[in-house]
Design a protein that fits this description.
Helices cover about 35% and strands about 15% of the residues. The chain has about 375 residues and is an alpha/beta fold. Strands 1-11-10-7-6-2-3 form a seven-stranded mixed sheet, with helices on both faces. The chain has a three-stranded antiparallel sheet with strand order 9-8-13, with no helix packed on it. Bound molecules: pyridoxal-5'-phosphate. The site of pyridoxal-5'-phosphate has 14 residues, from α3.
């Protein structure tokens, strides 16, 4: 095939274009307008999270989410190593330190290892939970729902609550994924949840992010910070440091229109995943299993392979214009993060070596799937 098969491209409709032009024609193209209000409202309703505020992207959503949870200079934040670096950078923006944890078979934080770390290496008193080695306060934990797979959010939140550790769910990849038993959407189980509307996500706004929470004060605070902390907007008085992190009304128009089609897109992805699985089977390969305890949005399809053949397969696919990708370089091994504590990271290393991310766009055709599977 001469045309590139992208890893994850957006799925647009005529309605997306119509609402985008409507916002453009309204002249409300920046940080206020009816589409922002409507999009926030619809996200809160759809996820049953009560309140929502929109940000420029998922990274800024995580930054202000952590700040709202009270992460301060000198604090520590528990986080996974196997994630996109955007989950981790906001910890450093706040001059706090990450403590890196391992992943389980679904690529999300390993619950048993987390419990082991908390039991053996921390202590809790009325001030909170502290790291026995560094004596620093562990104020928060970031749970990432990797590839759209739900992490064990219920259990992790329970462990954290006992220890006064706040939980931020990085649900940037998992909008629409639900934990079956509790019937709760990822992003709504911890203290705050963050979504991304980047062009490669399950739905897009051409870039964008959202923070959701049941705590209205917290969401209001994030909205305030994201619009330059205008304590007195008329006289331009700012009593605190602010950020220019508000989504634009034009982006919100696209996001709103896309959100109406979220279910449809997820269903398309589910069908394509089934088809991909069958095609791979004929070649002796398989996708990693999805967590049985969740209804998954199937955002990204990840194939299991032998570590010895991974690079060969990646090169073959990419030289034939198939955008297959390796899993992210682990976050605890980046040049500027390796100084921080990590706890028994083994499974993440194995997952990295034995995985290939495959094209997963909702508009993928069967012919495209057959084409790249035949290359394997
Ligand atoms: C796991 C994860 N966290 C955070 C982000 C950051 O989102 P954004 O690109 O919208 O800043 C992304 C996506 O890019 C992501 O995949």
């Amino acid at each position: 095939m001469s045309k590139v098969i992208p890893l994850s491209e957006p799925n647009f409709s005529k309605e997306d274009r119509k609402l985008l032009l409507e916002s453009f024609d309204s002249t409300f193209i920046s940080s206020s307008g009816k589409f922002l209000d409507k999009f926030e409202d619809k996200i809160a309703k759809m996820t049953r999270s009560e309140c929502c505020t929109l940000t420029t992207n998922g990274t800024s959503a995580i930054h202000l989410g952590l700040k709202a949870l009270g992460v301060k200079e000198g604090d520590e934040v528990i986080c996974p190593s196997l994630t996109f670096i955007a989950s981790i950078n906001p910890i450093l923006y706040l001059n706090a330190s990450p403590i890196f944890m391992d992943s389980d078979e679904y690529f999300c934080m390993d619950l048993e290892k987390l419990k082991h770390f908390l039991t053996k290496h921390t202590y809790t008193n009325k001030m909170g939970t502290f790291n026995k080695i560094t004596k620093k306060r562990i104020s928060s934990l970031i749970l990432v729902h990797v590839w759209g797979n739900a992490g064990k959010a219920i259990e992790i939140v329970r462990e954290c609550k006992k220890r006064k550790i706040k939980v931020l769910e990085d649900a940037t990849e998992s909008l629409g994924t639900k934990i079956k038993k509790e019937n709760l959407y990822t992003g709504t189980i911890g203290d705050v949840g963050c979504y991304s509307f980047n062009g490669n996500k399950i739905i897009t706004a051409g870039g964008g992010g959202a923070v959701v929470s049941k705590n209205k004060n917290l969401i209001n605070k994030i909205k305030f910070w994201s619009t330059q902390s205008k304590s007195d907007p008329f006289n331009y008085i700012h009593n605190e440091l602010g950020f220019n992190y508000r989504l634009s009304n034009m982006q919100a128009a696209i996001g709103l229109s896309q959100l109406k089609r979220l279910r449809k897109i997820i269903n398309q992805k589910k069908e394509l995943r089934k088809y991909t699985e069958k095609a791979l089977h004929s070649k002796g390969y398989k996708l990693y299993e999805l967590p049985p305890y969740s209804d998954n949005n199937c955002w990204l399809f990840v194939m299991k392979c032998k570590s010895s053949e991974r690079m060969k397969l990646l090169n073959k696919l990419n030289s034939n214009n198939v955008m297959a990708r390796p899993v992210w370089g682990l976050c605890h091994k980046q040049r500027y993060t390796k100084q921080f504590q990590s706890f028994e990271i083994e499974k993440s290393e194995k997952l990295l070596k034995e995985s290939i991310c495959l094209p997963s766009s909702s508009g993928l055709t069967k012919a495209q799937i057959n084409f790249y599977v035949n290359l394997l």
